Amino acid sequence: MSACSPLGFYVVDENTNKILYFNKQFTALWGIDHLEPDLLAGKLSHREIEETLAGMITREGLSEKLHEERSVDEPQKLRESELVLKDGRTMRCFETTVQDEQGAYFGRLFGYEDITERKKDMEKLRQANELKERILEVAATAIFTVDKDQVITSVNNRFTEITGYSAEDAVGKPCFSFFEPSCQPVCSLARALDKNAVQMEECRVKAKDGRMLTVLKNRASSGTIKD
To answer: What is the largest CA-CA distance in the chain?
Structure first.
């Protein structure tokens, strides 16, 4: 398990404060490979390791204890947190109690995972979604988006103004339920999603007041309505 695990971890005997086991990913993640000989020889206690790790965390990350005290009465509870390191990385930290074969509590396992890139990707996605929402809202054209099942996932303000349907009326509904006649059987948008093809096609949608409007569908899974 430890040889291929992306997680760095070590196990502590809380009765003696000694480190019973650690994997190489733990020392690699924290850049303390040079301490491996002392760890293997049992020369470093859990407290000393905690102090070493604490020195790498930002002041904000130290506003709470690196590892809070826990009760021996909650052996199965897993605690997780995120730590921001001084080198700019974000570390996921988790801990749980360890039991022996008889189920008796004797220590804790501390694990770490570098989630820096994951956090960056999540932030990029958040910014992209925000940009999409801003574009949708300021667009002069009515726009709606659908997912792979042709269910409407979002509409902009112009859509509600032109069609008369509120966001609540449209979002979560199949897009073809607003078309007349229904274009579901021959929808080019559905074919584009299946084959990743580039297709444009006009459809007719019935506004809430009965007016018929033209919808232009495209490969980005969105519809543009012209009054």
So the answer is: 81
